[in-house]
Amino acid sequence: MHSIVVALLFVLCLLSTAIQAHPSTSAPDSTSNTLLSSCLLSKGIKNFSYQSNSPSSPFNKQLTFSIQNLRYSLPSTPKPAIIIFPLSKYQLQQAILCLRQRSLTIRVRSGGHSYEGLSYTTSYRTPFGLIDLSNLNLVQVDPTSATAWFESGATLGEIYYNVAAKSNGTLGFTAGSCATVGSGGHISGGGFGLLSRKYGLAADNILDVIFIDPNGRILNRSMMDEDVFWALRGGGGGSWGVVYAWKLQLVPVPNRVTWFTISHSGPIKLLANLVHKWQFVAPNLPKEFYLSTDISGSEDGNGSVSFTGLYLGSKWSAFSILTDRYPELMISESNLEEMSWIDSVVQAAGLNSVSDLRNRSTNSKNFFKAKSDYVQTPISKEGLIGAMKILAKEPSAYIICDPYGGAMARIGSKDLPFPHRAGNLFSIQYLIDWTKAEEGMADRYIAWLRDFYAYMGSFVSNNPRAAYVNYLDLDLGTNNWTTSTSSTVDDAKHARLWGDAYFLWNYDRLVRAKTKIDPENVFNNEQSIPPLPE
């Protein structure tokens, strides 16, 4: 069984001297580099390096260390002209202004987990600069008010670690399972996780922000338009400016929780019955229960299904609920383990110890392609058998199904840009991965995944076929810009190709928010929200 692919990593905090860029189509000339260096150094920013073609250069080590999807680490991938590592809110503000002064497109990377590499690369025909937030990872917890402030470069693991340590294990944070994911990007797309059926998304629990807009203004919630504050919490990253820090409402967790994993393998028809029943059970369990399933195939034509469970309560209560509602799972008391909530976070992340949560380089890297769907009506047994037969022909592929319901159904679909609430039973994440040795087969693997996605079309949401913005998928469409600042009356209409899939009826409000905060389209990417023309 494959592990969940979502992860990595930390950009090394190097001091950098200004290394002149090797001439290339994606780097400014030496005069521009000198002017940019002068701007940065005059503001006290010393941690930066220029593009270099040498694989052993500080630049390439810094760039690749935080790239999780190795599809975007190839020599042919467009690279930033410069990487800047701000050390403070002021340096972040000045880095934005210096890059704008030199007319460089801006990319901002929190943890490097963008599925399509949009936080650190681009297909535009203009030079771009990368602001890496990995040094901005301070986490401050106030147990009395059950709140925390954290900088956008903090990983989920760093936040989990600090919240548990400073609250003596009484408070938690609702967000994803991968410890090395950057909080800034994760929250910008919503942030689903194992506590979401109880407490909603990470973005649902954001109380305030410190935000730097395209003109360098530093704003908090009270100083910005409410549409903009709304957009920052789930409207996708890379469109608005840069959130320097977030204020989070922490959530209570019990002293002991129950964790388990259980796997079944065998004939596809038998496993399809098990998955079919899961669709009715998992979204309707008590909101304290999270029960996901991963499905894959094997070369012998059989299937494999694994279940991951977290229950905010005792293992006896969990056992009673499961044996009553899902006896087909064949769970036994020995499968269930009670532990602290923070230990369950370690288990979900696939780590060995609580201290590993602070390590930004704990996950392995690979090449992968992903897509996503939402299911609103249970898939028939015949449909599941068909899907599992297709999976059995490609052992490199797998799907992950996350249950909704609970708080995900209670929170309104317009409360935040993330609209996938009541009416959704579960989400599907489709993944296929490969190694460097199989690099020549990448096109075949991606084509296979697209065909599988096409097969699933009749079983999932439609008009539009919905997708999760944190599982970025450029197959849905991209902006037509050849330069980053193009803006025409048709841009917002064209962007509906993916905007409606990710945000449904909330897309138009996002366009209005973009027009208010970034009418010149300074912050953009291939699937960013375009502004309306003046």
Automatic annotation (TrEMBL):
Question: Is Glycoprotein there in the keyword field?
Answer: yes
Where in this chain does the record put each FAD-binding PCMH-type domain? 76-253
> What keywords are assigned to this protein?
FAD, Flavoprotein, Glycoprotein, Signal
Q: Which cofactor does it need?
A: FAD
Q: Where is the signal peptide?
A: 1-21
Q: Name one Pfam family in it.
A: FAD_binding_4
Family matches, as Gene3D superfamilies = 3.30.465.10, 3.40.462.20, Uridine Diphospho-n-acetylenolpyruvylglucosamine Reductase, domain 2 (3.30.43.10)
**Which PANTHER family does the entry mention?**
OS08G0158400 PROTEIN
Family label: Belongs to the oxygen-dependent FAD-linked oxidoreductase family.
Q: What is the protein named? A: FAD-binding PCMH-type domain-containing protein
